User: Fold this.
Amino acid sequence: MEWTDTGRIIAVRNYGETSAIVELLTPEHGRHPGLVRGGRSKAMRPILQPGNSVRAVWRARLDEHLGNYALEADSLDAGALMDDPLALSGLNAACAMAVLALPEREAHPAVYGAFEVLISSLNDIDIWPALYISWEAGLLADLGYGMDLKKCAATGQTHDLRYVSPRTGRAVCAEAGAEYADRLLALPGFMAGSGEVSPGDIAAGLKLTAHFIERRVLWPTDKVLPEARARMIERLESAGRL
Amino acid sequence: MAGTAGPEIERLIQLLAKLPGLGPRSARRAALHLMKKREALMEPLAAAMAEAAEKIRPCSTCGNLDVSDPCTVCRDPRRADGVLCVVETVGDLWALERAGAFAGKYHVLGGVLSALDGVGPDDLNLASLVERAGNGSVSEVILALNATVDGQTTAHVIADRLSHTGVSITSLARGVPVGGELDYLDDGTLAAAFRSRRPA
Assistant:
């Protein structure tokens, strides 16, 4: 078996004294692990950082084997983010979430595409938190647990959508949801299609996606939200970005 | 190899094979060498290891490994008390000592944050660092952590934790290494080197 693909490094584990097991997020092969021989060498260590983009050739005798990666650096973005604590927290959260939520070796090109956009936007704090939330919402949708945010579940109207039902994941308009506001999740305007990110939207969006990722993706497999995501929220809060 | 050596020798080989850099074959060669040089090497080595195992302990102040507590570095009166250098492991402390570039005190974290391995701030030697930095005698904390995603994430978390102490927090520079050729440097290092440029 052999394939070639581009990919983003989302996890690196040392293996033995010289090698590393690397997980890539690729457009055609999804989250895919592989062994990089010599992955702990001086030449490879700068490349094998989460967030870097690589050109990968994967080879194995059988499809289900771990296999070996031959990696060539494509775009080494991690180094440029290291001085920015906010960007680094976003990178860590996105990588940890991809490792936790995505099934291995299952192609999710839309998730990969949104991940690429997110990583390339991490140097702009004004836009990446909203992109991160959109990426998580897209991740849910691609895994088959998407929210229906196009129209109100009660009235069918497509405007003034303010809430999401925590049970069904369907949007609820302001009028229909007013009575149950304390039991509904807030729907940020940018997720409802208004395009604007208002104060409080990032906190609401992170709470919304966390609710459904936990219940629909992680809890059924005995997993919990990654600590890196909590650290990102802490950092966004301390920077006044929630 | 089964049946050619007694269980004691087999055990010696198995234990040696667990050392970094040694596999089963090289462990067998090392065991043979030790057995050949029994008086000159094996017995002194065994005695040294027994003594080290008995006496070595982590320094309660900085986390370094030494036979005394506080360790030799912490007790050294020639070292500046006001500057703390934070490193990930004892190996990093030894590397800085080999370079001879630092004459202050150290603080060994015992690891870095890792989302993948579930290592959080509470798993690191952070509380004592905050305590040391806030005791009034420290003026600068140097974060000498690896230039990796995990290392720098840890550095940012430490900087946050120390922000209330009022000490100056610095980190090691990143840029072109001695003997490094620009053509072979990664983008991040080149960008960092440009940001850290200085008058020639």
Chain A touches chain B at residues 11-13, 17, 45-47, 49-51, 73, 75-80, 82-83, 85, 88-89, 91-92, 95-96, 99, 226-228, 231, 238 (CB under 8 Å). Chain A has a mean pLDDT of 94.
